[in-house]
Structures are given as structure tokens and as C-alpha cells.
Amino acid sequence: MAPLEQAVAAIVCTFEEYSGPCWRQVKLCQAELKELLEKGLPTWTPTELRECDHNKFMSVLDTSKDREVDFVEYTCLLACLCACGHEYFKDCTLGPHCSQ
């Protein structure tokens, strides 16, 4: 697979790995989202993110206000992270294939 295809597969598989049991609608509760962020983005997530911070984060992501994060809400988070990464690395002196 091409790198972009691998990235998309990783996004889908990671969501499915952390979302609840397969018998319920596939969404992330707050505890699952917290675990996904801490394990899936360990260098991007502060090591001591307080519970109130998780509550605020969850309320911003949960646009449907059902107290869970669905796949579309999750992809909005990832799109924001990609945009921030792009902004951060756009002036990278290592060239177009910046790996840091």
C-alpha cells in the first residue's frame, strides 16, 4: 500500500480498536477517547492531562452532544492535528520530505 493508504487504514483501524464492543454503535466514550489519545498519540498528549481537561476536550469534539465521539467527530480531530502539524512544519529546513 502507498503511504497515504496506510495512513487512512491506520486511522480507521485505530478508531475501531478503541471504540466499544462490536455489538454497540461504534463510538468512543470519554474513557476510550482518553486511552486512544494517550496510547495513540503519546508524544502529542500531555502525560498528566487532568480529568477536567478531558471533559472540555470531549465537549468540543462531541458536536452531536450524545456524550460519545463518532467516527466523523474523530476525523475532525485528526484533520485539526494534521493542519497544526502542517503549519508547524511548513517552514521546515529539512526540505519537502521532512521526517521530524
Automatic annotation (TrEMBL):
It holds the Pfam family S_100. Coiled coil: none annotated. Keywords: Calcium, Metal-binding, Repeat. Gene3D superfamilies: EF-hand (1.10.238.10). Residues 4-46 form the S100/CaBP-9k-type calcium binding subdomain domain. One of its GO terms (molecular function) is transition metal ion binding. SMART domains: S_100 (SM01394). PANTHER family: PROTEIN S100-A3 (PTHR11639:SF12), S100 CALCIUM-BINDING PROTEIN (PTHR11639). This is Protein S100-A3. It comes from Lipotes vexillifer (Yangtze river dolphin).
